[in-house]
Each structure stands twice: as structure tokens, then as C-alpha cells.
Amino acid sequence: MTSPVLETRGLTKRFGGLTATRDVSLQLAPGARHALIGPNGAGKTTFVNLLTGIFPASSGTTSLDGRDITRLKPEARVRRGLARTFQINQLFANLTVFETLGLAVNEQRGHGGRLWTSFAGNRETQSRIEALAGDFGLTDLLGTRTVELAYGRQRLLEIATAFACRPRVLLLDEPAAGVPEAERHDLLATIARLPREVAILLIEHDMDLVFSFAETITVLVEGAVLTSGPAAQIAEDRQVKAAYLGEDAHV
Amino acid sequence: MHSAQDSTAIRPVMRGRTALELAFWLLAFAAILLFPRKLIILNEIAILALFALSLDLILGYAGVLSLGHAAFLGLGAYTAGLFAKHMNGDPLTGLAVSAAVTGLAGFLSSFLVLRGTDLTRLMVTLGLALLLGEAANKASWLTGGADGLQGITMQPLLGQFAFDLAGRTAYLYSLVTLLILFLIARVIVASPFGMALRAIRDNPLRARAIGVPVSHRLVTVYTIAAVYAGIAGALLAQTTQFVSLDVLELHRSADVLLVLVIGGTGYLYGGIIGALAFKLLQDAIASATPQYWQFWIGLLLVILVLTGRERIRAALTGISRRLAFGRATAGSAP
Amino acid sequence: MLTIIIDGIAYGMVLFILAVGLSVTLGLMNFVNLAHGAFAMAGGYCAVVATTRAGIPFLLALPLAFLVTAIAGALLERLLYRPLYNRPHLDQVLFSIGMVFMAVASIDWLMGSQQQFVTLPEALKGRTEIFGIPVGRYRLFIIVLCGLLAAGLQLILSATRFGSQLRAAVDDARVARGLGISVNRVFALTFAAGSGLAGLGGALGAEILGLDPTFPLKFMIYFLIVVSVGGTSSISGPFLAALLLGIADVAGKYYIPQAGSFIIYALMILLLLVRPQGLFARAR
Description:
The structure holds 3 protein chains of 3 kinds.
Chain A: E1 6-15, E2 18-28, E3 33-37, H1 44-52, E4 59-64, E5 67-68, H2 74-80, E6 82-84, H3 97-108, H4 123-135, H5 151-164, E7 169-173, H6 181-193, E8 199-203, H7 207-213, E9 216-221, E10 224-230, H8 231-236, H9 238-243
Parallel strand pairs in A: 3-8, 3-9, 6-7, 7-8
Antiparallel strand pairs in A: 1-2, 1-4, 4-5, 9-10
Helix pairs in contact in A: 3-4, 3-5, 5-6
Chain B: H1 2-34, H2 39-61, H3 70-86, H4 91-113, H5 118-138, H6 140-143, H7 168-189, H8 192-202, H9 204-209, H10 214-240, H11 250-263, H12 269-288, H13 293-307, H14 309-332
Helix pairs in contact in B: 1-7, 1-14, 2-7, 2-10, 2-11, 2-12, 3-4, 3-5, 3-10, 4-10, 7-10, 8-10, 11-12
Chain C: H1 2-29, H2 36-53, H3 58-81, H4 89-111, E1 127-130, E2 133-136, H5 137-159, H6 161-171, H7 173-178, H8 183-209, H9 215-230, H10 236-255, H11 262-274
Antiparallel strand pairs in C: 1-2
Helix pairs in contact in C: 1-5, 1-6, 1-8, 1-9, 1-10, 2-3, 2-8, 2-9, 3-8, 5-6, 6-8, 9-10
């Protein structure tokens, strides 16, 4: 196996007496399509917050491309190539699509601290913004403010914004949550089309989406890894069915 | 493709705005000839506008709430006053020294201010201003304490223009400084850095998640804002040749909040429009009931908030946009 | 030395009574009410007018001050504060500062800008010796009364139905609503009681804090210190914070009078440097 692009070893998070994440070790190969599933309260969100650096880990390590990032701040992890989307849209209400994407592009290129140049005066920045908008079907909406976008479009902008950071690993936190049926197809097609160079960790409830997308699956229960393996194998796992899939009888 | 579309749609508005802006600044300079008896208050307006511009950078653009912005105004004023009194009476040198001192103070205090929630920010900013006020009060051997810092004499500006009693030099000096700093601020808010500030204001969590080093950006803008406020204070000290403890008081910080809210936060003319409205209002009320001016300020604040400052601002920008469009169409008509 | 500590404790106790309402309303609605001190001032002036002009005895003037400010608080909450709960903090700050300015100017207009005094009963004047240490009787009275009040508040909060509703609402207003608790009603009651306590504190404190129209401005920072250092999740946090603040301020002004209030501000800033979440705030 090639060396993993993202790896956690024994990642643990305690809040007072409560252990929200227990000794989680996970590996993502380059270009992986990996899903993290688990019943409500299994600690998926805490794990994402640990990976992205919002919470400091109580013990264990996280590494990206073989370099330890356990102690890095969230923004430093993003610059190293670990981007995420949010379960609930976390966007900039008053910025336009153009400005939102430009912001991420500028940070990615290391121009975010520039005081004296125009925001999108750079031709490379401009063309990257337009390319991203094209890839995510947002070209006609570049001048629209985020608050005025339909919900499904906002979800696309979420993903496009994360993508603008040029990640090596992308965490998709319930990308389809709350998207109305009419806009759902577009979104799923976009996710399926994401380029293979980027490893993706999908955190999802929706089993249809998980099994259509993921090649490997890790099941989290009560903060710890219950099992991990190829999607087909997980689908047949009795333990998993008992612990989790029992809830979703249709699988 | 997008940009082409966009710019054609925006162009008439832009042209209208530029014309309006040009007219505004021309009028501001022409005021020297038009209102020769009002130059003292015009000078105060220009300084207040600069102070409000400074607050707008942190509050309007970056969303940092401060209840002690007068700390930098006062520090700048005392620095400039003391420098002129004891070291060198050249105005521009004094301005530079004040800018440096307040910039350093802003940089150092930013680490305190930027931690925690709105509440701790309020408290720390208020506390720092009170701390400085108390220091200035107690160190009366240096600052003159409650009597104020007296005996400041300024050399002529650029060695040419003496500060006159009518306030011609003073107003021109403040106005040019305001214009320069305004233009700099305009470049800054249109830069990648400026966009990052707006993103932080809207959603700091998400800003971090796309790689914006939030605290770093805030330290930078807080330092810049401190410099701006310090220069406003220096202008105040140099043009009035007097500094009193009043510059550090809470009402200064509250007034500038009000100025900004009247004019609108998050766009650069907000501070200028607000300063103009505030001073004219103050002038009008003060001549009617000088003693209870504070009551009317309070009432204004309460009414502004209860009716919704967004709504008021929307009405104002609606009017100005209509004006801009009107001019643009009038201009393009043969 | 002991006298200073006792003075400091009395001072701190008054600060606690003054600020406790603010701490609860802040924790409950996340509403930054900088006008809290205006209620305290109203209570103080109430006591002054009652004792000096109407000849009402001091001990009756205290509950009167509580009642008047509590009613005023309830009215203002209903009319002016309620629409602002979901507004940004900037709006709340502007609004409450505006209220402070209006209160200051109105009192100045009504009563003049000079310092005001309450008429204390003879029994509370002078000093008593306790274990050979001379202690001001009025300070002793304050310590006992405020101590009882603090204990009573703690009891209400921990042992009554209202208290448990209040704690649930502070913890998570949404969940509390889901449980059928009328958060608005709880808040209105708390706001009124908190304003009343501030009024009582103002009446009690007029003698030792001083009372003039700038009271809400002068003590704004003290309330903020108590609340942000003590946290908003308990009664004991603000209580300890108020005591510490009182003792430190009295001791500082006694030993290093030339520094004035400098010490308190510096101490507070230092403290927030070390513990930005407050000294007694529970980690979330």
C-alpha cells in the first residue's frame, strides 16, 4: 500500500470525564473515497473537529503527508492541504460567490495578507475563480451574495470554497444534509465528479450516498472504531448491522 | 465573461459615484472660501471623521466591538502635545511620532483585546481607556492633570504656513491628512486583506476553515486602526494646541460609535457623513440646551437602535444611490 | 489591616448585589446591558429622596428602592429591551449606552450634579468593637444583609422550581423551551428582580460608594469586571469576584492612594491575560 496522505494514531478526546473520541486510528490513501459512518452521538463531529484542529487532542497524533500536524491551528492545516465543508452551511452571508471563492484562492496562493494590491486584480486569481465557478456550476451566480443563493447552491459553494484551498484531503461533513430533492441530483453528481487526486473523507448519515460513493468505510460507535474495511465487506458485517444499520432498515 | 458583464452593469453607477465623490472632496476644500467663519468646527469634523474611519476599520470591516477607542485618540493627542512642548514643534514630525507610539500601543494591546468574546472585548477596551485616563490624571506633573496640557506651541506647517486663529491652516492640514488616510484605507479595504476582514466579520469559524489566519489579520487591522486614531488625536492636539483629560473619556468612545452608526458601518464614507451630521447636530442642540446635550445623544442612540439602524442606513444609501443614478443619467444625456 | 479587609468585604458585598442581576441576565439572554448601573442609581436616589425629603426610615427605604427599580425594570424590559434580544451586540451596547446617557442627564436635571447622602438611623452610625477591633456598624450591617441575600439567592436558584427553570434556561434556552419553560417569562422576572437588586445595592451603597449622576458611568467597569471575571454560570463566581474586587480596590486605594483606580484596571487586564474566560467560569 502507498503511504497514507492522512493518518491518525490513537486519537483521543476527553471532555472532563467523558471520552468523546477513543483511540481512533485511521488511514486515508491518496485519492481515497472513504466514508465515516456511525449512529447519532457516535462522535463523528468531535472527530472532524479533532482532524481540523478546532479541538486540541487529549492524546494521539494526526499527520498529513507524513508530517505531524497534531499541534497546528486550523488555518495552518488548511494551508498544508486539509480542507473541510460544514454540515450546516458556514459561509459569508454578505460576500458574493466571486468574493468568497477569491478569498480562498488568495489565501491558498499566500496573498491573503496583502494590503496594497487589488483583491482580484491578479489574472491568475481571476482565472482560478472563474474555473472553480465553472466546475461547480456557479458561473452565472458569481455576482450574487451568498444569502441570496438557493440552499443547494450554497452547498455547492461550500464545496467549491473548500476546493479553492487546493486540498490534498477534503472532509465532506454531511454534504447532502437538508438539500431539497430537486437540487439533490446536481449535488451528488458534483461530488461524484470531484477529481481523483484529492482524497475524500465523507461523514454521512445517508446510506445511499455512502454506498454509492465510498470504496472504504470506517464505522464509529461510542467514539471508537467498531470496524473498518472495503464497502462491500462493511455492508455484510453483522456487527455493523446490529450496531448501526439496524436503524436504517432499508439498507 | 463574468467580469465583462459585471462591469458594464456597474459602470454607470461607478461613474455616478466617482462624480459624487469628486464633488464632495472639492466642496470640502472649497469650504475654506465658502465658510471662512466655520473653519474651526470644520476642522473638528475632519478630525472626528478620521477617528470614525479608524473605528470603522475594526468595527465595520472586522467586526471587533470596542468601547474604549478613545484610548488611542487620547494617547495620540498627549504624545503629540508633549512632543511639541518638550521636543520639537514641527507638526509633521509630531504626527509621525504619534502614529508610531499609538501603532505600538495598538499592536501590544491587540493581543489582549482579540481574545475572548464581545463581552470581554468590551471590558478590556473600556478598561484600557480608563487605565490611560487614570494614568493621565495622576501623572499631572507630565500631563497637567485635570487642568489639561497647556503651553503647546506649533511651528508653521512645512515651515511655511503658521496656524492662524481662524483655523485656515488647521482645517487644511486636517483635511489633507484625512484625504490621504482615506485613500490608503480605500486601497486596504479593496485588497485581499480587506476581504479577509469582511470574511472574519461574517463568520470567523469559516474564515479559519479556508486558511485565513484570523488573529494575525485582526492584530494587523487593530494596529492600523490605532495609528489612524492616534493621528486623529495628534491633529486635535496640534490644531487646538491643548489637550485635556476629556480626550480619554468614555463619552468620546461612545460618541464615535454613534458617529459611525449615524453614517453607517462598513463603508468608508460612513465615518465622514456621520461626523458631519453629528457635529452639526451637536452645534444646533448645544446652542439650544448646552447642559443636557448628553440626554439628546442618549435619546438619539436609543431611537436609532429601536427603529433599526439597518433600515435607516438602507434608506440613506437608497437616496444616495438614486442621486448617483440621477447624476449618471443626466451626465450621459446629450 | 483588618479594618481594610472588613471595609473591602462590605464594598465587595455591595458590588455583588449591584452586579448579580446583570450576570444572570447576561448568562440568560446574552444581552449586554450597560445600563444596569442606571437602575442602581435610581435605587440610590429613591433612598435619598425617601429618607431626606419624605422622612421614611432607612430600613423601609431599602425595600422601597428595591420595589421601585424592580417595577421600572419590568416595564423597560417589556417595552424596550425585549425587541433587542436577538440583535447584534453592537445594537445592545449602543442602546444601553444611550439609556445611561439619558439617565445621567435626567438625574442631573432633576437633582443636580452634587453628591447625595442618605439619612442613616442612629443605630447604624458609629463603630462597634468586635474582638477589640473597631468596625463600622453600617459596614457590619451591609455584610450581614448582603450575606443573607446571597445565601437566599443561592437557595432560590438551587431549591425552587423557578430556580431550576432559570438554570435550565441559562444552560440552553432552546432545550428549556422544548421542555415547556416559558423562557421569556423567566427572563422578565429575572430582569425585574435583577434591576430591583441593583436598586437595593444602589441604596445600600450610596453611603460607601458615593452617589451622584455619573454613578452608572463610574461603576460600569466594576460591573463588567464582576461579570466577566466571575462568569455567568453561577452565583458563587460573581460573589467571589465581587469580594476580591472590593478588597483589592479598598486596599489599593488605602496603601497606594496616588495610584487611584489604576491597580484595579491593571489587575483586571492581567487576569484576563491569564484567564480570558474569567476566573471562575466553568470550562465548556
